Predict the 3D structure of the following.
Amino acid sequence: MDAERNIIIADDGTMSARMLILDLLDTGEPPAFSVGELVRAGAAFGIEAPGIRTALTRLKAEDRVRAIARGRYTIGSGGAPLQQRILGWRTRLDLRRAWGGGWLLAIAGPLERADRTAWRRTLRALDLEGFAEAETNVWARPDNLEGCAEGARQRLATLDAAASLCVVEAAGLDAGRAERFPTLWPADARRAAYLELAGALDRSGVRIDAMPLPAAAAETLLLGRQAIRAIMRDPLLPDAFGPADGLSRLIAAMNRYDRVGKAIWQAYLRG
């Protein structure tokens, strides 16, 4: 696998208590977990109970999780926007519309960069919305998603991008930019990475029944997490930039794997 493909689907395979809790709650199925279930989930990754409890306390303070009953937790208001986005992985391709050749440009300046933490969130939001850095202080993407510039502003806002970020629709690029902008996304490497990951999901789904239940639970969560991260980070480019069959095949493979993973986790949490 080359460097571009590593960047696209990179996941170091580790799981922290914080990541585990959010990953489980972000699925929305079931919508809530008891402390005991979260502790048992942590055991599959070698995370001890105090680590789970400490992470829960911190996530509650950040409003990323909230208690709905004594010792039972669900996603908090601070995590709800991202959860809703994650839950849409199955219909990710539906966000695309026909591309008329126009572009969206996001333009940043000193105001957006003034706060380092806010700037990191802005860069993350731009990446998740499929913008690529085209030149100094300018990020671009084809204007082929629902809502055009206003829709992009709303989605960036839910991802905590700087409110002052300028997002505009652009047409009539000069010849140099019109030729260069479509090369900002490594379409062939992305497709190859998706097909490789789809194959990994299918292979895991075949062998998982022969694995000890804790190991099977850990593998399905880690591999499923990697697949959903790849799906949600896809820039949803027009077909003119390359075929979307890699993403559609990855989504189909993840749909199959999701059913396997949910059954394994239900069995594991029941003890």
About this structure: The chain has three domains: 3-81, 102-170, 185-270. Residues 1-10 have pLDDT under 50 and may be disordered. The domain at 3-81 is CATH 1.10.10.10 (Arc Repressor Mutant, subunit A).
